[in-house]
Write a structure and sequence with these properties.
This protein has 90 residues and is mainly alpha-helical. The chain has a domain of 56 residues. The protein contains three helices and two strands, in the order H-E-H-E-H. It has a two-stranded parallel ribbon. Helix 1 crosses helix 2. The chain is globular and about 40 Å long. This is ISXO2-like transposase domain-containing protein. InterPro entries: IS1016-like_transposase, Tnp_ISXO2-like.
C-alpha cells in the first residue's frame, strides 16, 4: 500500500506507471480518474465494472471484490492496532 496525495488522474497515473509492469491486466471500478487515465494509454489492459449496475460484470466477470476485501482487512487491522505512516511506503 502507498499513501498518495489525492486520487486525481495525474497522481494515480504516475503511481501506476512507477509501480505496475507494462502489459499488466488491471481491474477497477469506474472512478473517473481510472477511466480518464486508462482511456488515454495502451500500456495496460484495463477492465472495469460499473457498480451502479452490478458488482461483477456479467460479460467478462470483472470485479473489484478482491481489493475490497483487502481494504476491509486493512481497516480492521487499523482499528485494532492503529498504524504508523512510517510503516507504509510513501
Amino acid at each position: 500500500m502507498k499513501i498518495v496525495e489525492n486520487k486525481s488522474r495525474n497522481i494515480l497515473g504516475r503511481e501506476i506507471i512507477a509501480n505496475v509492469n507494462p502489459g499488466t491486466k488491471i481491474f477497477t471500478d469506474q472512478w473517473p480518474s481510472y477511466i480518464s487515465f486508462f482511456g488515454d494509454q495502451n500500456i495496460y489492459s484495463h477492465n472495469f465494472v460499473n457498480h451502479s449496475l452490478n458488482f461483477v460484470d456479467p460479460v467478462d466477470g470483472t470485479h473489484t471484490q478482491t481489493i475490497e476485501s483487502l481494504w476491509s482487512e486493512f481497516k480492521r487491522f487499523k482499528r485494532k492496532y492503529g498504524y504508523s505512516k512510517q510503516r507504509l511506503i510513501y
